[in-house]
Amino acid sequence: MNCKRVPFSEAKRLSAQYGLNQVIVVAWDKANNRTHIVTYGKSLTDCEQAAAGGNFVKNALGWPDELCHSEPARMRRKRAESPAKAHNTPSGEIRAKYSEYGVGIL
To answer: For 42-67, how does the pLDDT look when each residue is reduced to its tens digit (9 = 90+)?
Structure first.
């Protein structure tokens, strides 16, 4: 059986079904020796924190460093729409908090 990626919509569905603010799904396909991580957060801050958690998991599992700095699509869109406002997001606080645990986020 061919491994399918876990869709973002599934993480969002889990959030709604269980009343969760953040979801990090870690899946492994033994046949293909493939790990897949997908994250979801309700708010922009939750989204950013879930992504930082997903990056932490990737790092802990030994993923290559260049794959351990994912940024949520919502953050990229927000920065593209309003570069000045993107600097006023809680990103700095979140970066500082997670850097204590060895997690780097973009």
So the answer is: 999 999 999 999 999 999 999 999 99
Which H or E run includes 24?
Answer: strand 22-29
Q: DSSP of 34-72, one letter per residue?
A: EEEEEEEESSHHHHHHHHHHHHHHHHHTT--GGGS----
Asked if residue 58 belongs to a domain, the reply is yes
Q: Domain count of the chain?
A: 1
What domain range includes position 42?
8-99
Report yes or no on 34 lying in a domain.
yes
Specify the pTM.
Answer: 0.73
Confirm whether 106 is domain-assigned. Answer: no
CA distances from 101 to 17, 47, 52, 71 (A): 30, 18, 11, 18
- How far is C-alpha 48 from the geometric centre of its chain's CA atoms? 7
Give the integer Cα–Cα distance in Å for 67 and 70: 7
Question: Considering the domain boundaries, does residue 13 fall inside one?
Answer: yes
